[in-house]
From TrEMBL, chain A:
GO molecular function term, any single one: ATP binding
Domain (ABC transporter) ranges: 8-238
GO cellular component: ATP-binding cassette (ABC) transporter complex
Species the sequence originates in: Alginatibacterium sediminis
Keywords per UniProt: ATP-binding, Nucleotide-binding, Transport
BP GO terms, sorted: quaternary ammonium group transport
Protein name per the record: ABC transporter ATP-binding protein
Domain of life: Bacteria
Matches recorded under PROSITE patterns: ABC_TRANSPORTER_1, ABC_TRANSPORTER_2
Automatic annotation (TrEMBL), chain B:
Lineage, top ranks: Bacteria, Pseudomonadati, Pseudomonadota, Gammaproteobacteria, Alteromonadales
Organism in which the protein naturally occurs: Alginatibacterium sediminis
Membrane topology of the entry: Multi-pass membrane protein
Pfam family membership, one: BPD_transp_1
Protein name per UniProt: ABC transporter permease
Single GO biological process annotation from the record: transmembrane transport
TM regions (residue ranges): 7-28, 68-88, 100-123, 153-173, 194-217, 255-275
Record keywords, A-Z: Cell membrane, Membrane, Transmembrane, Transmembrane helix, Transport
Record PANTHER family: INNER MEMBRANE ABC TRANSPORTER PERMEASE PROTEIN YDCU-RELATED, INNER MEMBRANE ABC TRANSPORTER PERMEASE PROTEIN YDCU-RELATED-RELATED
InterPro entries associated with the record: MetI-like (IPR000515), MetI-like_sf (IPR035906)
Automatic annotation (TrEMBL), chain C:
Organism: Alginatibacterium sediminis
SUPFAM superfamilies hit by this protein: MetI-like (SSF161098)
Official protein name in the record: ABC transporter permease
Pfam families per the UniProt record, alphabetical: BPD_transp_1
Segments traversing the membrane: 17-38, 82-102, 111-133, 153-178, 199-224, 257-279
Length: 361, 285, 285
């Protein structure tokens, strides 16, 4: 263990159900006061991990430390962390104030102090005056904030959030993303947030762990995760991207490579894993890195304009090429005036194109 | 599978005690007694004599068959009478009138079976309301006894069991989406056709559970045959009562009890088999 | 045959008529019982002899009213005592069963669930008889072996409580299981997460969720016990509960005091029904 006091760290944490490994010898640290997201598809083990942290599942082996104290054998009700549940789990038989008071009462906080704390936390989440409302009277966003207030009033070392935005409609979800990030900055509490929605993770987090098959594929800042994914899985899971299968034809200095895409076509790309000549790779090219041009000489590949998927600022053009259909971000500066079937040329800078070892499937 | 903690065993204990002491052991014990030879002098020995008696004495045998048939008939009658009412409550009545109708069906059954039977006795007996009214209107000259016949027994059985048919039917019919019925008509079905092909198949679990309960209640009924049917009602539960309480012949009574239990289990089993339902699905909802 | 599908007018009228006839069929015996409780005659029969309250308040035989009929009053007391115990025991058992079957996964669960449903398909008379047989045999054995008579194993209030608990527990369990299935377990986890011990979490979160259901299940148990006849008949000792006492009077051909008892029963049942319904409404709100 390092000397720094981390709010949360795990050492070789492992969870096995019969033959199935849900969490595979995981070690990680969460910096104090940061917003840490665990991003992964359903079934990747993130929920099991969270439930182990909260104490609702027992680890098969390995350790969990909160503020450098081992908590594996501490019952869930004695762990210094709190959790916002997927469906919030606000007590329907209690008012807003009673919900927030619940944890304080368990700690035997006196009545007047309790009331003060409830008032203060409600102010901070922007819902002052709603003490006596019933849970059913609240809107989705308000419920969200009460669920967070209920935990934060206890000043936990770590706040766990289990996909709390999943049940909200799209618009409110966009809004709550920003609000959650601000709440975290305002309270300064360490947030551990699990989600399968990469956009939630990218927008809110200081660091994101991408989880797959019980392991973290990469733990990084959102920017680096997007720009420099360490594995093919991460590259595909985070953000939208074109994937073309190929083989490394030649390698150069500074992790550069020529990738053969068949048909005597080979393109320069960065090779961060320093794969050897002949390795099967997947070539990744973000739609926004590709430029549509009329100039054949400056382009890497030519194709035929197939269709336009209009979605405002996120509009994409599908171009049929010899290596398959490629998505290209629609240039927004000038009007788009191509007819279907016309020939287009695609170009990109070789820094924005990278290859990674192909996934086995 | 997760390891089960102490909490599980603490909860299992009362369940096991209840099931063993109040249900399983008493019935096994009854089975054992039914196989004992009734004798004050010789030591305990086992015999099938109590069961042979049942087949040798036409009275016992006839009563048994009669009870079964009457119960089946009562069940079918109850279903026929209850179904339109349940359908009305579930599909046609709306809002307040629906609540009121359902309450009207349920409320009489919060009352003791004894009181309900008593009401029918007042109406049907020789000096009763029906006889009196008919005489008042000059339709008959002398009082007529409407009690103590098979029709009055049937009336009592149907009335007693009505609620237990209505409630499962209503809940089964309510779960049928109106749009299914609309689709049935839309695709050209007639009233009868929609009823047979859409409504009844959907209500099947409710029909089966209603029928099972009504059948059980009729078969095990003692009050109605005894009070409305009178001396000649020939109901099997009366035979059991007679053996146990009047004749104090527990061995014979136990044998009768086991036979009734077998009969009811068999018919319930056949009912479930024919309709493709299971006990947990129909009863344990 | 739903509101959105038109039905011909005569057919509609016929259906309405049927519903009306059905309602009259339901209410008739009860109305008759109520009516004759005010008839100033020694028999609950026509002709109408004028209005009286003697069958409630009369102090002299033969017009001994309900409130001065010591035997009936005592039997009401017996019934209430039995019903109270049955309610408490059955609810406690049912709560355990509900937690057991909803919260835990274990081998043989489906089988045990079917066993739990068993009392629903055992006729009440047989349930009573089997408990009578086995408890008496056990008591006899103890008496012979230790020369000690366990009085409560002989017919009487305790055996009646046991016999009724045997099947009322199943009904309560079904009600509580249905409700507990709707409980979101993450609520209890949230309570743990906020620092509550498992026991406190159960009391502060789960019990309030179940409270209304517990109350209505309790009311149902109380009424079922109070009105039970079949099982009770086989287990009754010297202290007869109300249904048995009324049954005995009925066979002797009694005065309209039975009508007034019935009316009181109706009032109490209606009151309990209203309480139960209000609770359920509150639950939905």
């Amino acid at each position: 263990m390092s000397d720094v006091v981390n709010d949360l760290s795990c050492n070789l944490l492992h969870k096995q159900f019969d033959d199935f490994v849900a969490v595979d010898k995981l070690s990680f640290e969460v910096e104090s006061g940061s917003f840490f997201s665990i991003l992964g598809p359903s079934g990747c083990g993130k929920t099991t991990l969270l439930r182990m942290l909260a104490g609702f599942e027992q680890a098969s082996s390995g350790d969990i430390f909160i503020k450098n104290a081992r908590v594996n054998d501490v019952a869930p009700n004695h762990r210094p962390l709190n959790m916002v549940f997927q469906h919030l789990a606000l007590f329907p038989n209690m008012s807003v104030a009673e919900n927030i008071a619940y944890g304080l009462k368990r700690r035997k906080v006196g009545r007047s102090e309790r009331e003060q704390k409830i008032k203060r936390v409600l102010q901070r989440v922007g819902l002052d005056g709603s003490e006596h409302k019933g849970i059913s009277q609240l809107s989705g966003g308000q419920k969200q904030r009460i669920a967070i207030a209920r935990c934060l009033v206890l000043e936990p070392s770590v706040l766990l959030l289990d996909e709390p935005l999943g049940a909200l409609d799209l618009k409110l979800r966009e809004h709550m993303k920003v609000e959650l990030k601000h709440l975290q900055q305002e309270f300064g509490t360490t947030f551990v947030y699990i989600t399968h929605d990469q956009s939630e993770a990218l927008v809110m987090s200081d660091k994101v762990a991408v989880m797959n098959h019980g392991r973290f594929e990469q733990v990084d800042t959102p920017q680096r995760l997007y720009a420099n994914p360490h594995s093919s899985f991460v590259a595909k899971f985070v953000g939208n991207t074109n994937v073309v299968r190929g083989r490394i034809g030649d390698v150069g200095a500074n992790s550069r490579a020529k990738v053969e895409l068949g048909d005597n076509l080979s393109v320069p790309a960065s090779n961060p894993q320093d794969l050897a000549v002949g390795s099967n790779v997947e070539l990744f090219l973000r739609p926004e890195a590709i430029e549509l041009t009329g100039d054949a000489t400056a382009s890497q590949i030519s194709g035929v304009f197939k269709e336009l998927l209009f979605d405002g600022a996120n509009s994409t053009v599908i171009v049929q090429t010899s290596v398959g259909d490629l998505q290209v971000r629609l240039p927004q500066q000038k009007p788009f005036e191509l007819a279907k079937g016309s020939v287009v040329y695609l170009s990109w800078s070789s820094e924005q194109c990278f290859c990674l070892a192909a996934e086995n499937n | 599978m997760r390891r089960l903690g102490i909490g599980f065993y603490l909860l299992l204990c009362p369940f096991a005690l209840w099931l063993l002491l109040l249900i399983i052991l008493p019935h096994l014990n009854m089975l054992e007694v039914s196989l004992n030879l009734r004798s004050y002098t010789t030591p305990k020995s086992y015999t099938f004599q109590n069961y042979l008696n049942f087949f040798e004495q036409p009275l016992y045998w006839n009563t048994f068959v009669r009870t079964a048939w009457m119960s089946i008939l009562a069940t079918l009658l109850t279903l026929l009478i209850a179904f339109p009412m349940a359908y009305y409550i579930a599909k046609l009545a709306k809002g307040r009138s629906k609540t009121l109708l359902l309450m009207a069906c349920i409320l009489p059954f919060w009352l003791s079976e004894l009181v309900r039977t008593y009401g029918w006795m007042i109406i049907l007996r020789e000096s009763g309301l029906l006889s009196g009214l008919l005489r008042y209107f000059g339709i008959i000259e002398n009082n007529i006894e409407f009690l103590y016949n098979d029709a009055s027994i049937m009336l009592g059985l149907v009335y007693t069991a009505m609620l237990f048919m209505i409630v499962p039917l209503v809940s089964a019919l309510e779960s049928l989406d109106d749009s299914h019925i609309e689709a049935g008509y839309d695709l050209g079905g007639s009233h009868w056709n929609v009823l047979r092909e859409i409504v009844i198949p959907h209500a099947m679990p409710g029909i089966v559970s209603g029928c099972i309960i009504v059948f059980m209640l009729s078969l095990g009924n003692y009050l109605t045959p005894n009070l409305i049917g009178g001396k000649d009602s020939l109901w099997f539960t009366e035979q059991i009562f007679t053996q146990f309480i009047t004749r104090f012949n527990w061995e014979q009574g136990s044998a009768f009890g086991i036979l009734l239990l077998l009969l009811s289990s068999l018919i319930v089993y056949l009912g479930l088999l024919l309709s493709g339902q299971t006990l947990s699905k129909t009863m344990g909802k | 045959m739903i509101p959105s599908i038109p039905m011909s007018a005569p057919r509609q009228r016929l259906y309405k008529l049927y519903v009306l006839a059905f309602l009259i069929f339901l209410v008739l015996p009860l109305a008759v019982v109520v009516g004759f409780s005010f008839n100033d005659s020694l028999f609950p029969a026509l002709p109408w002899q004028g209005f009286t309250l003697d069958w409630y308040f009369g102090t002299q035989s033969p017009k001994l009213g309900l409130f001065h009929d010591k035997i009936l009053l005592e039997s009401i007391g017996n019934s209430a005592f039995i019903a109270l115990w049955v309610t408490v025991v059955a609810l406690a058992l049912a709560l355990c069963n509900a937690l057991l079957f909803v919260r835990y996964q274990f081998r043989g669960k489906d089988f045990l669930y079917v066993l739990m449903l068993l009392p629903l398909v055992i006729p009440g008379v047989i349930l009573g008889v089997s408990i009578l047989v086995s408890s008496s045999q056990f008591a006899n054995y103890i008496e012979e072996a230790f020369a000690y008579d366990i009085e409560w194993l002989r017919p009487g209030a305790t055996l009646i409580v046991l016999g009724q608990v045997a099947f009322i527990t199943t009904i309560c369990s079904l009600v509580l299981i249905a409700r507990l299935r709707k409980f979101d377990p993450s609520l209890e986890e949230a309570a743990l997460n906020l620092g509550a011990s498992p026991w406190v979490a159960f009391l502060t979160v789960t019990v309030p969720f179940l409270r209304t259901t517990i109350v209505s299940a309790g009311i149902v148990s109380f009424l079922m016990s109070f009105e039970n006849f079949n099982t009770t008949l086989m287990l009754v000792g010297s202290d007869a509960p109300l249904t048995i006492a009324m049954f005995q009077r009925l066979r002797e051909g009694s005065t309209p005091v039975l009508n007034s008892v019935s009316v009181m029963l109706m009032l109490v049942s209606a009151l309990l029904a209203v309480i139960s319904v209000t609770f359920q409404k509150k639950e939905k709100a």
